[in-house]
Amino acid sequence: MSNPYLSIVIPVHNEQECLEELYRRLTHTLDNLGKSYEIILTNDGSTDKSSDILRQLHERRPHQIRVIEFNGNFGQHMAIMAGFERVRGEIVITMDADLQNPPEDIGKLVAAMEAGHDVVNTYREGRQDTWWRLLVSHLHNKVRAWMMPKLKMKDEGCMLRAYRRHIVDLMASTGEATTFIPALALNYASNPTEVGVAHAPRTAGESSYSFYGLIRYNFDLVTGFSLFPLQFFTLLGMLISLCSFVFVVLLMARRLLVGPEVEGVFTLFAIVFFLIGIVLLGLGVTGEYVGRIYQEVRKRPRFVIKTVLEQNDGIIQPPLKIADSVSASNDLF
């Protein structure tokens, strides 16, 4: 199938319990839509039996299911980007393999795309997650909307989204070492929209995102699409410098009028410690940006593809030196 209408891109990381159910529900939904399609599953360094199951799924429907095997774990967004580099459909849909977003809602996204939109974002209705994830997500959505008002997203964490092919081609061509796909797509979209989708509790497996992983994930969003933190610390530094100058003038005037004093020394220590904390926090934020600049200027590949299973060419094993279509993880090097 050289030119399917739909391309479904799914990252897979240790989802052996979900893959069979995903295959059954996804193919049933797509068959009922009556449109030609392909499914691209990227195995992001799974350590369970996901790789063997993906090979079996490819053998069942070799014309419709393609499998990309990474040689390590490079992250959800890099797994999706690898699929973007190989899609052939006019409408490209991303989703997770854990079935928390039902494949049955794909029809909503296709209908919105056919109504003339080039990007369809989604938000989870009746979200089924732990309390701390709900709290962190709510707070982060508020902060992100304040820091980046141009990014109009109700729910940045839902990966069930749809994109026009030209948007996907633009994203794949960026070559960024760290990125956030939903936000990147909005930079190129001319007519985006949002639709609500269902959300189910995870019935098998475990989330690949720890609390620390979620923090790093949000750092990629903020540092990749906003200068607000740097601008905030610039303004804060100017304000503190002004206040410090006024404070020094007051201390000098008090010394001239009252004479030497020892009172207030602990207050001065508290002020000094506060200012040192602000400086260290500002250096940390600056370091996040500098670190990402360092990753980009090294020009190392973002991920490394070990094997591709597809009907046209059977098993393809590209040499690891190719940098155009492979990429390397930050942890590998």
Task: Describe the structure in your own words.
The protein has 333 residues and is an alpha/beta fold. Helices cover 47% and strands 15% of the residues. The protein has a nine-stranded mixed beta sheet with strand order 7-5-6-4-1-2-3-8-9, with helices on both faces. It is elongated and about 90 Å long. Mean pLDDT is 81; it is low at 313-333.
Instruction: State the end-to-end CA separation.
Output: 37 Å
The number of E-state strands comes to: 9
The portion of residues forming beta strands comes to 15-25%
- What is the approximate shape? elongated
Count of DSSP H/I helices: 10
Kindly provide the radius of gyration, computed on alpha-carbon positions and rounded to a whole number of angstroms: 24 Å
Strand sequence of the main sheet, in spatial order? 7-5-6-4-1-2-3-8-9
**Helicity, in percent?**
40-55%
Low-confidence stretches: 313-333
Structural class: alpha/beta
Average pLDDT metric: 81
